[in-house]
Amino acid sequence: MAAKSLNKHFSYFILLLALVLLGCVSIRSVSTTVPNSNAVPNEGLVGDVGPEADRRLRMQTWSAKDEGYSSSEERVSGVEKFRDFIKSRATALKNFAKNLNRQKATEDSVTELGGKAVESKRIDAALTQSVTNTRPELSEEAFLSTLTAQYGDEALTKLLEQAQRPGSSRLATMVKDVQLDHWVSQEKTADDIYNRLKLSVEDADFLEKPLLGTWIAFVEDKLKEDPYDFLLLKLAKHYEGDTLAKMLHAASTSDRTSAIAKNLEKAQLRSTRNTEDDVLKLLHLNVDEGLKFLKQPDLRTFISIVTSYRKTDPYEFLALKLTQIHGEAILANMLVKAKSDPRLRIYAEKIEAAQIKNWLATGKTEDDVLKILHLNPDEGLEFLKQPALQTFISYATKHDTVDLSEYLVLK
Predict the structure, then answer these.
(1) Which residue among 25, 41, 321, 411 sits deepest, i.e. has the most Cβ atoms within 10 Å of its Cβ?
(2) Does residue 366 sit within a domain?
(3) What angle, rounded to 10 degrees, do the helices at 51-111 and 139-163 form?
(4) Assigned domain for 88 exists
């Protein structure tokens, strides 16, 4: 609005100036022709009659015409030069006004920001264009500075929140990037920005806060730190283990919070404070389910977590845990069945190897293992058909205290 008004008044000014100056030119034209008309004295025109007077009259008349012609050329040349001057000045003044408007564009754009203006995609796009086109060398910093100066953190917060939404505008994204870099330049810590954005794990909708995403982006992308370990420490101070695990599990099923919740669960699993039993519980794995337990997809996650962050062999832990619950005989036969399923074979074989290792460590004899596996060599052909026989052979081979063929014949 200010730019249009300025251009309108400027046009009126140029028109008025042109009329005044052209009027001056007309007056000058009249004043230059008058002396030429008076070049012939009155007495010559009235009193003198004869050849000499006639000659003087012709000479003076020609002189007047000649001077008039020369003056006319000068007037035309002067007017053209003046018009060129007016045009050049008009162009210069228009450019000046245009630059003036551009310098004001950032502040004018921010001035238009109201409660709804920040959220309007149409105005938002216009502001972005204004900011990026007026003063490219400092447009982002100038806009952010002006926005904060005039409206404080509230307007900035709205734009940062908008930047976390799907399909966020160019302006919101720009403001977010500039703000994150600004925090880095000020050497802000994760805790500084956590407090500045007024985040609190005590809020029921903490995981749904749009600014939580802004904070995570700052810590992860700019500080190159793990934001989830930080958040887990905050959460652990306010929620007990089981309560926190249930809360995160529920949040992981919601579209709005699933990404953050799952990353927090992974951080929780990595925590050195958790035992292997804690990890099983966090993954909702129930070893009481027997063969069904081996079919759970999260069993792979458990093995990966224990392998990466614990000193314990995950298969030895599972062998001991399953033995405590089901007993050696049931576990051994359960593993025999599991090995017949291609999906479970790899787990079953490794848990069985851990079980055999435990038998060797505890001094189990071949007779002990035959009883555990419910194998009876006296059954002849049926004995040889038993799937568990392969487990016994694996144990006897590793035990290597008797000749297996001779032992079976004697049995």
Answers:
(1) 321
(2) yes
(3) 30
(4) no
pLDDT given for residue 175 in this prediction: 76
Q: Is the pTM of this model over 0.70?
A: no
What are the residues whose beta carbons fall under 8 Å from the beta carbon of 235, sequence distance 6 or more?
201, 244, 264
Tell me the DSSP string of 66-79: HHHHHHHHHHHHHH
* pLDDT, position 214: 92
CB atoms within 10 A of CB 245: 18
Residue 54 has pLDDT above 50, yes or no: no
Residue 327 lies in a domain: yes
pLDDT of residue 89: 57
In this predicted structure, what is the pLDDT of residue 404? 65
Establish if 191 belongs to a structural domain: no
C-alpha neighbours within 13 Å on the C-beta side of residue 110: 23
Helix axes 314-326, 298-309, angle to 10 degrees: 120
**Which one-letter amino acid corresponds to residue 356?**
I
Residue 262 has pLDDT above 80, yes or no: yes
Q: What angle do the packed helices 170-185 and 139-163 form, to 10 degrees?
A: 110
Cα within 13 Å of Cα(408), Cβ side: 16
Query: What's the first-to-final CA gap in the chain, in angstroms?
Result: 106
What is the predicted pLDDT for the residue at 316? Answer: 95
Residue whose structure tokens are 């709005």? 256
- Residue 301: give the domain boundaries: 282-411
The total number of structural domains in the chain stands at: 1
